[in-house]
Design a protein that fits this description.
710 residues, alpha/beta, Rossmann fold, homodimer, EC 2.2.1.1 (chains A, B), 3 domains, six-stranded parallel sheet, 26 helices, transketolase activity (chains A, B), metal ion binding (chains A, B)
């Protein structure tokens, strides 16, 4: 069957239904074996989540045996179908199929180490991207389905960019399992809406509809018409009534979904949680082992020996044994295809292969201006000056915003939107799937979760860039965290940081949010102070191949400082103004960096006090420097007190400073300058605080032992 | 018309339509005056959000003149209708109607100070709860509609609890304006789904359907069938085609919504953003002033003098002038009703009036056990021991969970669910609207945003309690923040804190989240160490009348410590073990508090080192103590180094400690004890680190000036 896709891809995939019918006699044994395996694994640990995995057994057989294109012995085969387990607590479902289908790392020993004390186990409590056969780390509900949307968008973009007639070098499908929970989480609902808008016909969501969550029946909290809601959101819906046994029905639905023409597909599969156990159909089956007697009873019911555990019979092994070879054949076919394609389209082929390897063009840094206008410039505008020339030239970057295009300055000349091409006609939108500018809508959380999917498609093949006000990265924080946890490169352009953003007021003025991102592992939170530092921030972000970065910029214009250096940003903090005989060190940060310089000047001019000035855009990068560099930069060991100036909560600065001029309350709705004045961020007031502190230090020896809020 | 409600309330409200028809000749002038006022206010500032407010003018006239029951001169009239502007950036819409309808604080001068530099302005960039006539602070999109769901739930609960035949002491309706954005935000979608499930017929959402957001046409990012989606979610839908002028049609729709029998109502009102201006119907009308010429043109078009600004003619003043008196009449009727009710139902009336005043029964603390079992107890279980007796007895508490009832221990004997009563029959659920246990579903963000609405109904009349794993309070963080910003009491029971939660792994193990909540203004983040401290945490939380609290508890059993004191928690940190000649101070926290005691014992026994031990459950409460208390507790000025032991990111502890045994990376999926071991949280390993640090301190003078990660 040839399936034309709206992105121009066509793919020929034979129907698996004849094979399903031929092997149907084996299914009963396979399903029983699988279910007992899950029950045994949970019982061994005395916990875990058996019910969902058992209920989804027939779905798993349908996917891994009959539908998905993947290669167990080449887990990272580029054009593999992506599978996302959004209901990640049912991880044993995936682990067991990885074992059965021949993923080499997932040995039987590893599988049986589920929830054991071994630190190198491949069976953590939720799937983790580090391990073979796992596409994304899931667990926090709703993330996985948003990731899947991103994975499907990655396919669309790469396929439309690189496929040529006869050479569909990118043609994979994305399959996503969800449970009742994912249909309640906001991030999933945002992503569902956007996937419908984008008409991602290469995305299939399979709903394990068992109508049970931790609290009991879903009726306790959700009585909506799910199918109608999905249809209203632009999805095709297929029902499967007997999801526990009807493999033929499931495979038929999955094939229909794979062949979808215009929309993503939602397959509503009715299952029974903890099928055939004494807790079948109840919440008790969700998150606890069944108990030894119940597991034994289940074995007896299934005609197995209740004394034996972890039994996988030869027939079951045989049922799955052809899958690695089948996968290697696909790998070889694809390798040949890419090889032929590169002969036919040498330039495109070379670019494609570099993308596959996750390489940027060697000259990417050359697109960054070597200098900037001297006039005061908002650092959000600087960010555009730095990045838009890169985005224009390099396909790797997919750039989006949560409906703040006029504010975040991420539009490059000639940008094309990522959109279904038909919207050109119906809505007059300049877009198709090769577009790399994504209108995410007012969906900050999905934006970042989807961007994790874009990044997870293959390491550094796509570098997603998101943008919104810094404050709204609190909405997106769970997804930003998941990116950091998964070592996924992604660049978050956060504008309107600090009280300087002005009259939008305390709901929009971030006070405490930097404390979160400075504490979060494996993410760079960078506040550059002017255009030159913005260049340094972008360079650090693009060079951080295994971590996300937040570039935190100002709404208001900032003076351009002659002392700043882009290479200083890479070290986290560096000296702007040095003096061997200084009596105080001022730490300046981001939008308020110039305040530190101005205070130093006023201290010198009016008080005869000499101050060193440090620019401190990124704590994490500074922590990565040598102890010597850090000590020499701060010089606290020389007894020189350090004072940080930043209108954020001080938390975390106590590590680098003896005192701080910070903000310990929520903001206030005032225009930018008035807001700074209201909170005491004027040069006179700041200078007075510094002088008073230095005076106090002489009189109160205790102060030396304490961080002082000035 | 008498409207029986499913909660048993009946209300008699005459139709306003005859009055609408009588006054229809005035509408044109009122609408034009209003629109020009908005245009002038934005033009004066040179910014702001004129377009939406102008497009919604007829909706506003319909609401404030014809539909809503409120009292401008008694803004906090208890039984007033609640109005929520979820699209808070259109705040001028609300401010202008507050002025026109006679709210005394909103003088013409105040209105004209919109976005000025005056710090006492009542017209901040988004509505703020502190000001007359504002029910909740909005701005971050999607929050307001979720708040509105909470406000409507508050009405249902209070009405069902206190109303008696002939005495509907609580009968108000909740009206919520939203724009296109709120229909995209996840938190709104969660709340919409739950409101449909709860069949909140006392909630009406009015959709300002102008099909424009910042990026341009909504088609760029959303092409779903909104009405179908709302119907699928359990809402009635009414369309109004001409939302710019058709006041009669809008009033009719609003009346139909107010009389809804079984469902919340979604009124889809088509409007034109920036109507009649040169940017009408475009994104440019959204967030910028029109420009002086355009404003002048608009005045000419409307037959006004283009040279005059801020003109509100006598006819318009007269149109609104009867509203304060009408409101006072409603206030008097309600006061009389409550008075009669209290005569007829003395006990209930007294309780109701105490609720109105926001008072708890004087004896609430007596429900807390005076002692606890000595056996190891998970602090999540301790939390249930402390709080469930209170929740059982005191109606003030409405308690919910995001689908973690089996894990969070918040169920008291005899609890009744908050549910539509018909679900008893259809789903076998033990609930009605008097129920105070809320199954929020897997909707953490909406849970906390809705709880803000419950709290905002009237100060401390309802104290909402939410619960889920600590990690998932990152999903809810934007709403938790809004509670803190609004000084709303709310208690968040966060279980499964720290790596001790075990095998669910790094997605569920909070490392950096405490740093956020310790930095966030006006919230208490408390980690109690055992049952006694859990008692102290709850007391602090219930006593915090103007702030939310997070009580952070363990999944795993904790030893019960003889040194802990509930009154110590109120001081944030206190001495557990004192020694005048100690060489080191150990700071213990929450689930790991016992580690500090055990390390101290081992230091003494094996190394001859004497340690002081401090329990440090809450940084914010500690900061509220006197300088003397803080210094005497920490004794760092005496040169005694302090070491904090907590498997979280260290950020913020640098203020209180010289060194820390913390975690600077994401967690690891291992059972609780193995996870602690993996990260070095065993007594031997911890003791070794302390000893090594004390040795190093002697050899390296620099270390005294630095926070050291051990």
């Amino acid at each position: 069957m040839t399936v034309p896709q709206s992105n121009g891809v066509s793919k020929s995939l034979p129907s698996a239904l004849p094979l399903v019918q031929k092997l149907s006699k084996d299914h009963d044994n396979v399903l029983k074996t699988f279910r007992l395996l899950i029950a045994d694994l949970c019982q061994q640990f005395g916990g875990g989540h058996p019910g969902g995995a058992i209920g989804m057994a027939a779905i798993g057989v349908s996917l891994w045996k009959y539908i998905m294109r993947y290669a167990p012995h080449t887990p990272n085969f580029f054009n593999r179908d992506r599978f996302v387990l959004s209901n990640g607590h049912t991880c044993l479902f995936q682990y067991s199929f990885l074992h059965l289908t021949g993923y080499e790392a997932m040995t039987f020993d590893q599988l049986k180490s589920y929830h054991s004390d071994r630190a190198d186990a491949l069976c953590p409590g939720h799937p983790e991207i580090e391990h073979e056969g796992i596409e994304v780390t899931t667990g926090p509900l709703g993330q996985g389905i948003a990731n899947a949307v991103g994975l499907a968008m990655a396919t669309k973009n790469l396929a439309t960019t690189y496929n040529r007639p006869g050479y569909d070098v990118v043609s994979n499908h994305t399959w996503c399992m969800i449970g009742d929970a994912c249909l309640q989480e906001g991030v999933a609902l945002e992503a569902i809406s956007l996937a419908g808008h984008f008409r991602l016909n290469n995305l299939t969501v399979i709903y394990d509809n068992n109508q049970v969550t931790c609290d009991g029946s879903v009726d306790l909290t959700n009585t909506e018409d799910v199918n109608a809601k999905m249809r209203a959101s632009g999805w095709d819906v297929i029902d499967v009534e007997d999801g526990c046994y009807d493999i033929e029905g499931i495979v038929g639905a999955l094939e229909q979904a794979r062949n979808a023409q215009e929309k993503p597909t939602f397959i509503n599969v009715k299952t029974i949680i903890g099928l055939d156990s004494h807790v079948a159909g109840t919440a008790t089956a969700h998150g606890a082992a069944f108990g030894p007697q119940s597991v034994a009873n289940l074995k007896t019911l299934y005609g197995f020996n209740p004394e034996e555990h972890f039994v996988i019979g030869d027939a079951v092994r045989k049922f799955f044994q052809d899958l690695p070879a089948r996968g290697e054949q696909w790998v070889q076919e694809w390798n040949q295809l890419v090889s032929d394609y590169t002969v036919k389209h040498p330039e495109l082929g070379a670019e494609f292969q570099a993308r596959v390897r996750g390489e940027l063009p060697a000259n990417w840094e050359q697109h960054i201006p070597s200098s900037f206008p001297e006039k005061p410039t908002a650092s959000r505008a600087s960010s555009g000056l730095v990045f838009n020339p890169i985005a224009k030239e390099i396909n790797t970057f997919m750039v989006g915003t949560a409906d703040l295009s006029p504010s975040v300055n991420m539009i490059w000349p000639g940008k094309v939107d990522f959109q279904h091409p038909d919207l050109r006609t119906t809505c007059g939108i300049n877009g198709d799937y090769s577009g790399r500018y994504i209108h995410y809508g007012i969906r900050e959380h999905a934006m970042c979760a989807i961007s994790n999917g874009l990044a997870a498609y293959s390491p550094n093949t796509i570098i997603p860039v998101t943008s919104t006000f810094f404050m709204f990265y609190l909405y997106a924080a769970p997804a930003v965290r998941m990116g950091a946890l998964q070592n996924l490169q992604g660049i978050h352009v956060a504008t309107h940081d600090s009280i300087g953003m002005g009259e939008d007021g305390p709901t929009h003025q971030p006070i405490e949010l930097a404390a979160l991102y400075r504490a979060m592992p494996n993410i760079l939170y960078i506040r550059p102070g002017d255009s030159e530092e913005v260049a340094g921030a972008w360079m650090a972000a693009i060079n951080a191949k295994k971590a996300p970065t937040i570039i935190s910029t100002s709404r208001q214009a900032l003076p351009q400082l002659k002392q700043t250096r882009r290479d200083g940003v890479a070290r986290g903090a560096y000296v702007l103004e040095e003096d061997e005989f200084a009596t105080v060190t001022l730490l300046g940060v981001g939008a308020e960096l110039s305040f530190a310089l101005d205070v130093a000047a006023q201290l010198r001019a009016q008080k005869g006090i000499t101050a060193r000035v440090i620019s401190f855009p990124c704590q994490r990068l500074f922590e990565q420097q040598s102890l010597e560099y850090r000590r020499e930069t701060l010089r606290r060991h020389r007894g020189i007190p350090a004072i940080v100036i930043e209108p954020y909560a001080p938390n975390g600065w106590e590590r680098y400073a003896d005192a701080g001029i910070n903000v310990n309350r929520f903001g206030h709705s005032l225009p930018s300058k008035a807001a700074y004045k209201f909170f005491g961020y004027e040069i006179d007031a700041l200078t007075t605080k510094v002088v008073r502190y230095l005076d106090q230090l002489n009189g109160d020896e205790y102060l030396r032992h304490e961080f002082v809020d000035l």
